[in-house]
Write a structure and sequence with these properties.
Blueprint lengths: L3 E6 L4 E7 L1 H11 L3 H18 L8 E8 L5 E6 L4 E6 L16 H5 L3 E8 L6 E6 L6 H11 L5 E8 L5 E11 L5 H9 L1 H4 L2 H7 L2 H8 L5 E7 L2 E2 L5 H10 L2 H11 L1 E5 L6 E5 H16 L1
Parallel strand pairs: 5-11
Antiparallel strand pairs: 1-2, 1-10, 2-9, 3-4, 3-6, 4-5, 6-7, 8-9, 12-13
Helix pairs in contact: 1-2, 9-11, 10-11
The structure holds zinc ion.
Length: 296
């Protein structure tokens, strides 16, 4: 079932990208052993990255988002592509903080309010576009919206939410991005802004309703049509070949050390936890390729 739906206002003045990220965030929890607050922070980042990647036309493109705040979670990374694949990691998935006074998970406290968001946007051809902006609140959606406004000169309304059950599993996760197009009338922008309380309730709506029904509730009062439906998932693209290339790129000295001291190595993928083992003989072969490369 499609868990990403794009919409367009009937007057063509703005479009929306709406995600039901429940399965994706649950998969991230299973892979990384995320605490509730880490699940909320990483879940929001994963969905935000999918929204950021959704307007790239070329399937070879992708968007990688790094959120580096001064909070205990450390760095959060999410990489998404327009095919609807996303993967991510966080430095300290086990971090737990007491809830805020309003009972909500303290994502801003866990991420930290001081720091930056860096985005590498690869359109699939040419040089990737690299941009960054300071964090606003560490609550992710605000930080990404500020990034859009300052780095891409693209105003948007962005809502990302993750609800976590008491047992740590994901109750629902949802994201809405609304992007006014150039020339969007002031009146339409005001109308869109009036919907803010509904958009921010989107994750709640997804608890009991399908994605199309939740969109209908969130956009009630707006004339819109659905323009695209897509399946998204947590997908890692790691492989033995990629790990070999990574090993070759770390250089001869490190490889020699791995051969002489450890007689092999084991690499764990940060995004999915898959382990790749290399024997001494395999490392020697890679060492040969590394030195051939350095001669070139
Ligand atoms: Zn992987």
């Amino acid at each position: 079932m499609a868990n990403l739906i794009k919409t367009m206002l009937e007057d063509g003045a703005a479009y929306g990208v709406c995600i039901d990220g429940t399965r994706i965030v649950q998969r991230a929890v299973n892979l990384h052993g995320l605490s509730p607050v880490a699940a909320a922070a990483m879940g929001r980042t994963l969905m935000g990255a999918l929204i950021m990647a959704s307007d790239i036309k070329d399937d070879r493109g992708d968007v990688s988002v790094t959120i580096q705040g001064d909070g205990p979670l450390g760095r959060i990374i999410a990489v998404a592509n327009p095919k609807g694949e996303v993967r991510g990691c966080v430095d300290h998935p086990e971090v737990m903080l007491p809830p805020r006074a309003d009972g909500k998970l303290d994502v801003g406290g866990a991420v930290g309010k001081n720091g930056r968001i860096a985005v590498v946007r690869d359109l699939g051809f040419g040089e990737p576009y690299v941009g960054q902006s300071p964090l606003v609140s560490g609550e992710i959606a605000e930080d990404m919206a500020y990034y859009y406004a300052t780095s891409q000169q693209q105003p948007c309304l962005l809502y990302l939410g993750v609800l976590v059950n008491t047992d740590g599993s994901i109750l629902s996760a949802g994201g809405i991005g609304i992007f006014p197009l150039p020339g969007c009338p002031e009146e339409t922008i005001r109308k869109l802004e009036l919907g803010a309380p509904l958009y921010s309730d989107f994750t709640n709506m997804l608890k009991d309703s399908s994605l199309p029904d939740s969109i209908a509730m969130a956009f009630s009062g707006l004339a819109y049509r659905i323009t695209q439906r897509q399946d998204c998932g947590y997908v890692c693209n790691c492989s033995r070949e990629r790990m070999e290339r990574a090993l070759i790129s770390i250089g001869e000295a490190e490889l020699v050390q791995m051969v002489e001291e450890d007689h092999g190595c084991e690499i764990t993928c940060h995004f999915c936890g898959t382990k790749y083992c290399f024997t001494e003989e395999e490392l020697l072969r890679l060492l040969g390729e590394a030195s051939a490369k350095s001669v070139e």
